[in-house]
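Hey, can you fold this one?
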Amino acid sequence: MTADFGSRSLTGCLGCLEPIDTDPGRHLYPIFSWRTPDPAASPAGYEMRFAASFDAKGAFEDTAVTVTHPERTITNAAGTWRSQFSNVPDVDGNPRRVVGSTDIHFAEDDGSTGRFIAPGEALERRMP
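Sure. Predicted structure:
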């Protein structure tokens, strides 16, 4: 994720730096009585790109999402990104963390469908 605080905009990609993976058994999963079945196919190779603008309080919610896969044709993608920047600044006065969630549905040309639902967080990391 890259944020431009001057223009209050950000862009990001899930699956671009590290493959998307499923990891049941973490967070609240063990206490729920219902279970979602394991995916029929690996989510590796998919990338979800987004762009949004955030308000003065550092919150954003947007539906501008794109889903891609190098070996599959995505015909439709829709979803929502919601996040909030931390109010704890780093040494430069920028937020040091962002937390939020995503819910994205997509369809492929062979009739397959998919959905990514996930909480997320990112700590500040400066690139050299």
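Residues 50 and 65 are 5 Å apart (CA to CA). Let me know if you want another pass with a different chain boundary.
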